[in-house]
Design brief:
By secondary structure, the chain is α+β, with helices and mostly antiparallel strands. It has 2 domains: about 1-40; about 45-160, 3-layer Sandwich (Rieske Iron-sulfur Protein), CATH 2.102.10. It has one helix at about 1-40, and strands at about 55-60, 75-80, 85-90, 95-100, 115, 120, 130, 140, 150-155, 160. The protein has a 6-stranded antiparallel sheet, with no helix packed on it. A 4-stranded antiparallel sheet has the order 5-6-7-8, with no helix packed on it. The longest helix has about 35 residues, at about 1-40.
């Protein structure tokens, strides 16, 4: 009987060790799969090369009357002469978002500057591309490029908009 208990203990210990090792291998494999599938490749997509990578720094005072609309959720304003086609700043309710106002799927023409309509922005070119000002993705037709985002940091009533 004593031999059986020893065999059982050895079997139990080796069985637990086997599952411990397998569990570790599973998590290592899972981590590698997630890591390698989510790594972005530094491939220059020739279809998304219409916008320049400009260094942006702009301070926006929310106390000024021209910016007062941003104090309310779901409102957006357009700031000209910054970035490729200006900047669109949106109050999403959970924070502020800033996008380049140039259509990323068009060459830089006057019609490619986006105009705001609620939480959407549309170019005035013949093929009017429309984008969400919350996600930056195209609406309706699936387009290759999404809106170019900018970083927004809040410091009291000042929003600091800068390139990433």
């Amino acid at each position: 009987m004593r031999d059986l208990n020893q065999i059982y203990k050895i079997f139990k210990d080796s069985f637990l060790l086997y599952f411990y090792i397998m569990r570790k291998l599973f998590f290592i494999l899972l981590f590698n799969i997630i890591f390698y599938t989510n790594c972005s490749k530094n491939i220059n997509n020739s279809q998304c090369s219409y916008l320049l990578n400009l260094d942006i720094y702009y301070e926006l005072n929310l106390n000024l009357p021209q910016n007062s609309e941003l104090n309310f959720i779901s409102n957006s304003i357009y700031i000209p002469n910054v970035g490729n086609g200006g900047i669109i700043v949106t109050n999403s309710g959970t924070g502020f978002l800033a996008w380049d106002a140039a259509d990323p799927n068009r060459t830089n023409l006057p019609c490619s500057v986006l105009t705001i309509s609620g939480l959407e922005a549309t170019s005035s070119c013949a093929e009017q591309n429309t984008y969400s000002l919350i996600t930056g993705q195209s609406i309706g037709v699936a387009l290759t490029c999404s809106l170019k985002p900018y970083r927004v940091e809040s410091s009291g009533n000042i929003l600091i908009i800068s390139s990433y």
